[in-house]
Amino acid sequence: MPMTPTSEAPATYRLIDGKQTAEDIKVEIAAEVVQRKAAGQKPPHLAAILVGHDGGSETYVRNKVLACERVGFESTLLRYEDTITEAELLAKVDELNQDEQIDGFIVQLPLPKHIDPNKVIEAIRPEKDVDGFHPMNIGRMVAGLPALLPATPSGIVELLRRYELVTDGKHCVVIGRSNIVGTPVSILLAKNLEPGNCTVTLCHSRTQNLAEITRTADILVAAIGRPGFVTADMVSPGAVVIDVGTTRVEDATKKAGWALRGDVSFEDVAPKASYITPVPGGVGPMTIAMLLLNTLRAAKGEIYPR
Which of 45, 63, 114, 262 has its CA 20 to 30 A from that of 197? Predict the structure, then answer.
C-alpha cells in the first residue's frame, strides 16, 4: 500500500498487530532455545531489578518474567524497596555483572529520585545491557556497528519490516526526543538499512508549528507520553502511524479503574491512516519480544564475543 500522503483519506486502515508479531518472534526464539538445549548449551538467563512499587513497572516486569517462561529462558527477579541507596543498587549491578550465569539484565526505570539512572545504566556491562541503554551500545548504533539495540525502537523497526512497509526515501516524523525511544528510533530509521533510509524530522516540546510538520509525514511516530496528543488534523491521509504511548488514565468502566491510552487519539486518527498501531497491543508487546531477542544475542555472544 502506498505510503506517500494523498489528498484523500484511505477507504480503510490496517492495524499493525504488535501482539501477534511479538508472539511470532517468541515462537522463533523458543525454537532456537530448544536447539541450544539439544546441543548441551544452557538456556539464556535474564535478570531484572525492580525498585519500589510503581504500578506500570510491576506490570511490565511481571510480563517479562512470563515471557521468559514462554520461550524457555531462565529468569531472576530481584526486588528492593525504594529506600535502597544508590551505592547499594550499584553494588547489586556489579554483582550481576560478575555472575557468569546471568546473560543479560535490566534495571527497571523509573528509579527513585535519589538514584541517578545514568550512573546505574553506565554501571551495567555493555554485553549484558539487554535494554540497549548503555552509552557503548548507543554509540555503536550511531556508528552503524552491531549493538544490543534499545528494545522499543528496534521493536518499531521490526514491525515496519514484518509488515513490509516501504521506508526508503519516506519522510518520518518522530514526536519525542527521549534517549529511550525518540532519539534512537530517529537514528535507526535514518540509517542506510532495511527498513531505513528515511528522511527524519525529530520534534519535541519546543518545536514550532508542530502540526504543519507532522502533516508532511509518511510515517509518524508518537512517543511524547501525552495521551491523545496526536489528533486527526496533525496527520496526513495515508500516513503510517506508530503510537508508542502507554499512559494509565482513570477509567471507571474498567475493573482496575484505569485504562492504557496512547499518544494518538485513535478514533479520530485511524480513519486517515493507512496503517496504525493500537494501544494496547501495538508497540508494547514488541518491547518485551526485542528484550528477549537481545538476551538471546547476549547469550550467544553475537555482539560481544564471550
Answer: 262
